[in-house]
Amino acid sequence: MIMSIKVRYFASLKESLDRSEDELAFGKSLTVREVWQCANAGKPLPAHILAAVNMDYVDLDSIVQDNDEVAFFPPVTGG
After folding, report:
1. Which residues have a Cβ under 8 Å from the Cβ of 41 and sit 6 or more positions away?
2. Closest CA to 49 of 20, 6, 13, 79
3. Comparing C-alpha atoms, which of 50, 39, 69 is closest to residue 12?
4. What values do phi and psi take at 46, rounded to 5?
5. Which of 11, 36, 37, 50 has the highest count of CB atoms within 10 angstroms of its CB?
6. What's the rounded Cα separation, in Å, for the pair 32 and 49?
7. Contact (CB, 8 A) for 19 and 9
8. In this structure, what DSSP letter does residue 31 have?
9. Dist. CA 46–CA 48, nearest whole Å
């Protein structure tokens, strides 16, 4: 079974990657960390990055399911 996953990038991540989203297809379950690695081959996962699956913040080791939306956010500072 092929899984379809939408990956979205926000704020400075969107600017540094020069895109706001990816559509990925996988043949097996992946963690959020593995989704980043597959979508951004050769680019290390930024330190302190925040991730959400279907608009809920998750750990980078959370499993992504078919038709999930994974979002990556840079750390937010208040002021």
Report:
1. none
2. 13
3. 50
4. -60, 145
5. 36
6. 11
7. yes
8. E
9. 6
pLDDT at 76: 74
Going along the chain from its start, the domains and CATH numbers come out as 3-73 (3.10.20.30)
Q: Higher pLDDT residue, 79 or 41?
A: 41
Q: Where are the alpha helices (DSSP H) in the chain?
A: 12-17, 32-39
Name the band, by pLDDT with cuts 50, 70 and 90, for residue 77.
low
**Which neighbouring-strand residues pair with 18?**
none
Cα(62)–Cα(59) distance, integer angstroms:
5
Query: Residue 19 contacts by C-beta under 8 Å, 6 or more apart in sequence?
Result: 9
Q: Report phi then psi at 72, rounded to 5.
A: -120, 135
> Which residue matches tokens 């302190």?
48
**Distance between start and end Cα atoms, the chain:** 46
